[in-house]
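WARN retry 2 of 3 for item q-0093 after timeout on previous attempt; input resubmitted unchanged.
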Amino acid sequence: MDTNKIKQWFKNDYVRYGLILLAGLLLGWLIFSGGSEGTPGEDHSGHTHEMHTDENGVKYWTCSMHPQIKMDKAGKCPICGMDLIPVKASGTGSDAIDPDAIQMSEEAAALANVQTFKVTRGNPVKEIRLYGVIQADERLSESQASHVSGRIEKLSVNFTGESIHRGQTIAMIYSPDLLNAQQELLEAVKMQSVQPALLQAAREKLHLWKLTDGQIASIEQSGSVSPLVEIKANTGGIVVGKRVSQGDYVNQGSVLFDIANLSQVWAVFDAYEPDLPFLKVGDRLEYTLQALPGKVFSGRISFINPILDPATRTAKVRVETANSGLELKPEMYANAIVKTSLRQYNNEIVIPKSAVLWTGKRSIIYVKQPHTETPAFLFRQIELGPSLGDSYVVLSGIEEGDEIVTNGVFTIDASAQLEGHRSMMNDQSARPATGHEGHDMSSMGNEKKPDASSKTEHAMIKVQGSCEMCKDRIENTAKGIAGVASANWDMRSKQLHLNIDPSRTNMDIVSKALAGAGHDTDKYRANDETYNALPACCKYRK
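OK item q-0093 returned
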C-alpha cells in the first residue's frame, strides 16, 4: 500500500478516534478480565451460592446494614459502600445449634461483655423507696385563744418559734366585761350568809373565763377589782403561729397563738399508686434525713390515706416517731425504704432488670442455648410480674435453671435484627435474601425481607427528625396507614423500620404521609408551611 495514502488515512479524524476507542476497549478488557476466574458467561460479582468456610473460619462476608448481601471475600457493600464484615462458622457441641439462635464467637461475646445468670425460684422481697417530710403531730397541736373580749395590753410571747410551758402567762388583756364580773363576785361575797348560791354562781362565771382558783381567791381576799386579766397557756410546746400584736382588740374565742408539741412528730411520705398494694398499716419502715446524715430512724406505718392526690397520683403514708430531743424538725426532708415480702408470689422466678428488653407491649430476654461450644442465644418472650426495684418477678416464659443474658442484651438483639430473626424491633422472624437482589441502587434505604410466617415485609426508609416528639409523630403517622403492621424510628440513624403488607400499601404511600406530617423523606419533602408549624424542638433543617 502507498505510504502517502496511509498517512492521509491516519490524518482523518474519524479514523483516529475510532482507533483510540478500540485501544481503550482492549485495555479495559485486559484489566478487568485478568482477575476473573471460571468460564465465560458466568456472573463474577463476588456472590457464591455455596459458600465454604476458609482457613480462618469465615463462612461469608456481609454488610451490617444490609444482611441480605453475602460475599465470598472482603470488599464493599454494593448498596451503601460500607466495608463488609466477616461471619464466622459456629463451633459444634454435643447438640446442634438451634437455627433461630443468635451465634457469637467467644471473642465477640467477650468484647460485648456478655454476662449470664442461671435463674432460680425464691420468695421475692419488694423494696419500695418513699420520699417525704417531717410534720408536727396534729393531735398534739392546739390553738391558744382569748377567753374574754378586750384589748391586748401586753404580750409575753412575741415571735414564732418561741417555747412556752403550760400555765405560763402569755398575755395581759383589758376587759370591761371581766371588770363587771369581778364586781359581781365581791357583791356575792357580801351576801354569802343570805344567798350562798349567788357566790357559787359568780365564781363559776369566772371559772368559765379561765380564771384560776388562786386568782378568784385573791380577788375575794383583796376586795379590789382589776380591769386586766392574765391569759395563761393551756398547753406547752413551740409557737408555730402568732396571730395578734400588742394593742389589738380581740373577741372572746379569738386565736392568739398556734402551739405545736414536738415531743412526737409524723414522718409523712408520698407513695405512688403502683406501690400502694404492697404497703399496709403496721409495716416497719426505716428512713434517713438529709439534715442528720448517718442516723437511721425507724417506725411502723400508722396510717395510709385512702384518698389519692389527683395531681401527683400519690397517697400519704404516715409514721409516728418519738422526738424527745427535738432533733426532728417540721419540713425536714426524709428518704425511706420499705421491704415487704410478696407472699402471693412465693416460689416464683426472679430475674435482674438488666436482662429484660421492654418494648412497651412485649418483654424480651435472651436465653443461652446449653451444650454448645460457640455461644448461642435464643429469643424468648416472657410475662413480667411486679417490679422489685432492680429485678422482676417472672410469671411465665422461663424455667428454673435457664441461663439468661444479664449484660450485653442489646448487642445480641442487634445481631438478631441484622440476621432477620425475631428481635426487639421485629416480632416476626424474617428470612434474609441470599441471591443477587439489592444491587439496584434505586432500592437503597428500602430493602425488603419476606416474612417467614406472615404476608408482611420488612422495609426501611430514611425520615428526618430530631427529638422524641418527632419519633412519636413519625411512628404514629406510619402506623395509621392501612397495611403497616409496625413502625420503629431510630433517632440516630434516621431510619424508619417498617413491617408492611405489600398488598395493601407501599413505601410511596408511607413516604407521602410522612412528608404530609412535616418530615422529609428520601422521596418527598414536607412543604414549608407544615414544617414551620412543627414545635421548635422538632426543627431539623439547617
